[in-house]
Design brief:
Elements: H1 2-8, H2 10-16, E1 25-33, E2 39-46, H3 61-74, E3 85-88, H4 112-122, H5 125-135, H6 137-146, E4 168-169, E5 172-175, E6 181-185, E7 188-189, E8 202-203, E9 206-209, E10 212-214, E11 218-219, H7 228-239, H8 254-265, E12 303-312, E13 315-324, E14 329-338, E15 344-345, H9 352-373
Helix pairs in contact: 3-4, 3-5, 4-5, 4-8
């Protein structure tokens, strides 16, 4: 069904006919409600292959955000919440500090909650680094393994740190509203490097380091690794926690789920988060499917997109739950493709705006149009 849908649209077919070249992977999940309004999921795949490596880029921010909230729940007895000021120290090379600063404007505080907002609203990399350091490399990955994501590897900051430096994470201190210390976390080290499920991974024919062109493939072997199925399942676990087996469910409160869902859906301007009220950010900034990240795109008021995206090294990805209350429809859609025609990594020359984003925009619209016409026994849909 998905294959025929993709080939039936002229614009999509231009990429689909060269799917291997574009390393295209798609997951389309139909959602049907029963008489009790419980969701049932039917997944359709196109070229889904966990051994087809792609750079997950900012997709890793969703599990990092969820696990940071989990960890806060373990610190509840210390009085630590997502609103507490968080200061970050240094204890190893390639680490950078964030000093304690008290401010009357809570939107500008350094806190777990604000870091998650920055990650989910505009995909802020430094915010991710701070929560990666809060979690620690080994605890982060071991917790994902315990949840059933045994092949995932989140082992890098978004910073020019080598593999060894990324095993070391910073000391962290949390403060209450009066500036008193609530909890101190020592610097951490992963004593044993993780293995990498796919073995050696190289991409491209060359790569740039500054102005220098290195005439050999780029090595992704020790990079972050997050298969499309796993990040799709993680989004499903955040949006539909009751549908996940308890052993595989994030240990979050209802408030945590609501918090994540709100910022997965919100746009920079609609979020109410003061730092992103400027014109530098636009409504479709992080909405690739359906809106194509077009600055001039006009949002449909009843169409809600809860999503996480990735854009790096020529890879473009969007993993979304899409719902329209007016049309009584809802579905999940995940896609990744590679748009690097010259085969050179890090040269800044990628076909994001000419191929990748237009494809994702069209894909979202084609599946949406199919969904609103797909017969359903019950037309109720989830409201978030």
């Amino acid at each position: 069904m998905l294959d025929s849908l993709l080939h039936s649209d002229t614009q999509l077919a231009l990429v689909v006919r060269q799917a291997a070249q574009y390393e295209l992977q798609i997951i389309y999940t139909q959602i049907d409600r029963d008489e009790k309004n419980q969701p049932h999921f039917t997944q359709h795949n196109f070229r889904l292959d966990a051994r087809q490596y792609f750079d997950p880029a900012s997709l890793v921010k969703l599990p990092t955000a969820a696990l940071a909230l989990e960890k806060l729940n373990k610190l509840r007895n210390y009085g630590v919440t997502r609103r507490c000021v968080m200061a970050t120290g240094v204890a190893y090379r390639c680490q950078t500090p964030v000093a304690y600063v008290a401010t009357a404007d809570s939107d500008y505080q350094h806190s777990v909650g604000n870091y998650i907002k920055r990650m989910l609203l505009v995909s802020d990399n430094n915010a991710y680094n701070r929560l990666y350091e809060f979690l620690g490399q080994r605890p982060l990955n071991e917790r994902l393994d315990s949840l059933g994501y045994s092949k995932v590897r989140i082992v890098r900051r978004f910073a020019p740190c080598d593999t060894a430096a990324n095993r070391y994470t910073n000391p962290i201190t949390f403060y209450d509203a009066n500036g008193s210390i609530l909890y101190k976390q020592s610097a951490n080290r992963n004593p044993k490097p993780f293995d990498f499920p796919l073995g050696q991974i190289t991409k491209g024919k060359a790569y740039r380091v500054g102005s220098k062109l290195i005439q050999q493939p780029y090595n992704f072997t020790t990079a972050n690794y997050l298969p499309l199925q796993d990040i799709t399942d993680m989004l499903k676990a955040v949006m539909f926690p009751a549908s996940i087996a308890e052993a595989n469910r994030f240990n979050l409160t209802s408030s945590d789920y609501q918090f994540l869902q709100y910022y997965l859906h919100s746009t920079p301007h609609s979020s109410g988060f003061e730092p992103y009220h400027s014109k530098a950010y636009f409504d479709a900034y992080k909405k690739y499917l359906y809106y194509g990240r077009r600055q001039q795109a006009i949002s449909k008021p009843d169409l809600k997109i809860y999503n996480i995206v990735g854009m790096s090294h020529g890879y473009l990805a969007d993993v979304a739950y899409i719902t329209d209350s007016t049309q009584h429809t809802e579905f999940m859609l995940s896609c990744v493709l590679y748009v690097n025609k010259d085969g050179i990594i890090n040269d800044g020359s990628y076909e994001y705006t000419t191929v990748g984003l237009p494809f994702l925009e069209r894909l979202g619209k084609v599946v949406y149009d199919y969904e609103i016409n797909r017969p359903k026994v019950y037309t109720t849909s989830q409201q978030n």
